Amino acid sequence: MRTRSQSRRRRQQQTPPVVVENFDLEEPIVDQNIVAMADNRTMAQMLQAPIEGYEDAIVVPPINANNFELKQPLINLVQSNKFTGRQDPHNHLRFFNKVTSTFRHPEVPNTSIKLLLFPFSLDGEARDWLDKEPPRSILTWDDLVAKFINQFFPPSKTTYYRNEIITFFQKPNETFNEAWERFKGLLRQCPHHGFSELHQLDTFYNSLNSNDQDALDSAAGGNFLDKMPQEGLAIIESKSKVRYSRSRANDSRVSTDAPLSNSSPSNNSFDMRFSRG
Known about the structure:
The chain is mainly alpha-helical. It contains 13 helices and two strands, in the order αααααααααααααββ. A two-stranded antiparallel sheet has the order 1-2. The longest helix has 14 residues, at 176-189.
């Protein structure tokens, strides 16, 4: 009579072994030259700092022009307005483009000059950012601008300014000129807002108080929005050159000797004074 333990041993002996074929795990091909080189180095040599990996992030195309060099006065001018990461990056690019446009070489593309000069325009946090970018990761001027803007003008900031533009309204005590300058300032702070000229003019017109809307309609000889966008912009710019001062209850512009009149203008009226350009 077979015991239970004897039956278990008999089944284990009869079970065929499982063969696992692994076709994916192949023996790596070892470069004997690399192994030999590693083996021939001493521990001191292995512990030395590497001599590679110190290339700049910006790749400047080869310049084969004769007698080309960046003059020190140009570098000094670029460095006179360094970007540290705290200022408006768009304003920095405008300044940098203006400065670099003054230097031209017939055999050197202006974009190459910009790639060479841009690191000189950075300092502090901005310089640290560029130093931490992967080596040879910026190949063109467009690459550099895109990375620069994305770093110092993140998408959340773009969303904020887009909302400010969409929901823009003239403040109660704000003149037409002040409102227009503030609106243009928002557009300038976020030049990639994506709104067409038509959308901008429509938003600004509908943000105005009724008096200023009527003034634009009058200047347009009818409905302001019936004009072409370029005509509408010209009307707004012309009107913004006229100085308006809103009369306020606490701001008396009438001579103290003059009697008060019931026909005096309301708080929403304007005293138009033409400024000479």
